[in-house]
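assembly run, all chains below
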Amino acid sequence: MTPLAGFLLVAALVFSIGLAGALTRRNAILVLIGIELMLNAANLNLIAFWRYGPHPEALTGMMFAIFSIAVAAAEAAVGLGLVISIHRHAHTTDLDQMNRMKG
Amino acid sequence: MNFVFYVLAALTVVGSLAAVLLKNTVHCALALTVAFAGLALLFLDLDAQFAGFAQILVYIGAVAILVVFAILLTKGSETPKDGVFSKTWLAGLFVAAAVFAVLGWAVLQTAPMLSKGATVPTVTVQDIGIALIGRYVLPLEIVAVLLTAALIGAVIVAMHDKEGAK
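ok done. output:
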């Protein structure tokens, strides 16, 4: 197995674990943790393809990963702000109890 | 595929598994930090020094702290009586396993064609800075606007409105 295949398998495993967490946990914060893991697995893919791609000096994959990190930070800030806002309104972060669109 | 890679891969996978499976939410956040550190070390193993240290600064330094703050503000560390997994956990697990099966199959099918990456790329921080203000200057500015908007938006969303209806 080539090194690139190893990194891609690790990224696929972390992505699946994050997806399982986002789909099975009840707590909204844990769902956000799952989404963060999925974004990080995608970053690992980008960096691995950059390292083992034909033109690493063009920096394309590296730039994608850096911008992805910045966008993920913005996503985490807004997502956790939304969770705090929902908790203040509904006094719970349990997603199974949030079954109304009307406040 | 050396020893270091296996250790880092095991650290990352165990950390992310613990982040998803543990019952106490604070323990989940700490396990998430371990997973982020493992990913940062994998970046360093891939000769991407800048991305690795950016990962440490942004994720371990900021996002993990933000998650801990959110847990403490929402009293999320109290384990609910009726379990931590949702009612439809079996379907979610099935979907995640199917996604991993497809991804793993695709990687293993194409594994013989993937390049070995014989030459180590020599990329300095200076190269990254020149690329950021040269070819990638427009995305850089857009990210700057996005981060400002996200900062203001997160504060407004989470702000306590005393005059609002109860």
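The radius of gyration of chain B is 21 Å.

The mean pLDDT of chain B is 87.

not gonna interpret more than that til we talk
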